[in-house]
Specification:
By secondary structure, this protein is an alpha/beta fold. The protein has 13 helices and eleven strands. It has a single domain, classed as Alpha-Beta Barrel (TIM Barrel). Helix 1 runs antiparallel to helix 11 and helix 2 packs across helix 12.
Amino acid sequence: MITRREALAALGGLALAGCATRTGGDARETDAETARLLDGVIGIDMHSHAAGATGRRAPTYDLAEHMRTGRMTAVCLQHSSDGPVTQRDPQNRVRVVREPQPGELWRFTQSRLLWFDNLVHTQGLRRALRRGDIESAHRDRAPAIVQAIEGCQFMEGRLEHLGDVYRRGVRHLQLVHFMPSDLGDNQTESPTQGGLTPLGRDVIAECNRLGIVVDVAHGTLVMVEAAARASRTPLILSHTNLASRRLEPFTRLISVEHGKLVASTGGVVGIWASPTFTSLSRYVEGVARAAETLGVDHVGFGTDNSGFGKSQAVWTDYADFPTVVQLLRRTGFSAADVGKVVGGNYLRVLNESLRA
């Protein structure tokens, strides 16, 4: 029995030697163990903008079909509520370029909610709205979305808008994004709010009451510390990576302390499919290292699919989910731990967050 660290070292050699299967279909058809695992595990991406969810007028491809092909059960699919006032600079960094007009971001979110309605209707996707919905979707091999919003700027200070989006199917909410927020401080701006504001605490309480996952991605460590005290349910930090050295100013990476804080709530940290990983094999290595550091019960996928601007994530097609499962086994994960990392950990937090 080799250790996972030894398996990580071997995985790079496997990939270079061409031993790792290149497509999801190949993995399922040529690897009997992978095929068996796919029958039992529930695959969930905790953070995705796939198929044009953030701002395209129409879906850019058949997301449901790609999920069916890869046997991926669910995707936390979202738009960014501050999208109209942000853009990427020549260095591909997201910048806030102007102040929104009154009502602009709420109207934008309403238009995106209509987009999601159309996606669900035309592609035959299910929405996860209640406990057990994800499990039912997996049993029926029916692709599902957990509808999410990245950043609460759509609220424009009005707490009642949380109830409005809940009624439209939203079950996962990220508190802050790139635009400075009246809920708390984000990682890419100078802190001015002292962490989490009173409105931020009210939003967490309302999410707990309604049954919405609380996502602290993009939040500063100080903000996350306050969110951990305020929330009655485990926290999700949906998309990031653990820094391998001292944190640079305004980075979106997090320290080990930051990750362990989320884990201490019973929560889960989603690992980016960042282009810096360079390959799917390297991405799986990153997931494995995070699991060794934070614990296998507290790590999952948060690919940020289509969220890197002109750069592509290293995992862009959910049809390749079988390959990811295969690579996780080759890093030394047990079959049970594969089930946790690929979606079981997030499913636990989702079900704890949803109302009965």
